[in-house]
Automatic annotation (TrEMBL):
Keyword set includes Oxidoreductase: yes
Organism: Faecalibaculum rodentium
All copies of domain FAD-binding PCMH-type, residue ranges: 45-223
Tagged with keyword Electron transport: no
Protein name as catalogued: Glycolate oxidase, subunit GlcD
Pfam family, one: FAD-oxidase_C
UniProt cross-references to InterPro entries, sorted A to Z: FAD-bd_oxidored_4_C (IPR004113), FAD-bd_PCMH (IPR016166), FAD-bd_PCMH-like_sf (IPR036318), FAD-bd_PCMH_sub1 (IPR016167), FAD-bd_PCMH_sub2 (IPR016169), FAD-linked_Oxase-like_C (IPR016164), FAD-linked_OxidoTrans_Type4 (IPR051914), Oxid_FAD_bind_N (IPR006094)
Lineage: Bacteria, Bacillati, Bacillota, Erysipelotrichia, Erysipelotrichales
Keywords tagged on the record: FAD, Flavoprotein, Oxidoreductase
Amino acid sequence: MSESSYKRLDHGDIEAIRAIIGDDTRLLYGVDLPEDYSHDELGGVASYPDIVVRVKTAQEVSRVMKYAWDNNIPVTPRGAGTGLVGSSVAMEHGIMLDTTLMDSILELDEENLTLTVEPGVLLMDLAAFVEDHGFFYPPDPGEKSATIGGNISTNAGGMRAVKYGVTRDFVRGLEVVLPDGRIVEFGGKVVKNSSGYDLKDLMIGSEGTLGVITKAILKLLPKPEKTLSLLVPFGTLQQAIDTVPVIVKSRHIPTAIEFMERQVIVDAEEYLGKPFPDKSADAYLLLKFDGSSQEEVDAAYEAVADLCLEQGALDVLISDTEEREESIWKARGAFLEAIKGSTTLMDEVDMVVPRNCVNDMVAYFDEVQAAAGLRIKSFGHAGDGNLHAYLLKDDLSDEEWKRRLDVAMELVYKKARELHGQVSGEHGIGFAKKPYLKEALPEADLELMNGIKAVFDPKNLLNPHKIAQA
């Protein structure tokens, strides 16, 4: 559907939606529409919806979608708005479906090791609930105030992906409202499923372009009995990164393998107002181990500690108390906000490269800084090749920022393609990264993506202009 074909909401549409919802307090429009709904955490892409509907049930979502379908009104699903690529920005205005009030944990099935939740449940609340019951939900994206629906929509990864995998690996079933208002179920509690095309997996990572997730069945694991972290300082970042393949090839795979540089640690210290256990070295690996017994964890970390020292580590600092553990991982969790607080505006590159190319990619950031004239700070998941590079505006004018940003983005993504990487490891494409996806993928891939979109949403009403669309 062309832009001119979409209907802008008028008084009659608002009255119709009011009749569907029956609760004025859950409708936001006009002067009552908060500015936060015009953008996500990225901030660089902005567009207001005509109305925000704070839905509570799948039936409400269904009725709103059916009304939108019948009246050619675009609809944008939204969780907590913590995304970084403009996925939840209403580029064509219309209706925004805020799912944060759908925040119930519906069922803990201890026999099938599943948890059934609504999409607005926050990741931190989900993790706390299952751990209180002796279980473990491994996906661990850095933004703990994100909703599980948003995590599923972007196939979020996080720090534990090196051992356990990403969100897709822990979604068993989904309830979805299609663009025409039909409520369908994909997958379920079964462990194995070869029953036709995997429609569930198509939904995961589709960024709200194919359907609105209203319920999810998640896979759980027994909670590890013991955990321990190592903070390993190195003289150079290359030494740190080059150690990662050695660790991965060992028989003792950590739960997480993160890399960080001293300046990002300093930023986090200033942001949190708390000291980091060590900031004497230029680069660090942060490793986490878990297991069913202390003996299992000890054997793993001792073997990996020896490998790190053999590769030139300056020391191995063991985080074996709750206080040390909290100080290290709280600092790691604050990196994004700390970097954001150190500049006036930033944009982010979330590329992923093969693990043996991480050092090449990170080292290239210095060349990009010089070529584009921008400060770049980076950290990432060294164990799975997912790197986060933050490009900082500082005191540049808007025009100069845009020019230099374009140069830097082109250089970074070009290098990622040369290293056989991909545009995004876990944040998605949304609106902001579309040009780089189109450069990275063959035309046939893009045609298939848009063909899938057309099958689910022939009127192109659901989250238009995202991922591979024009």
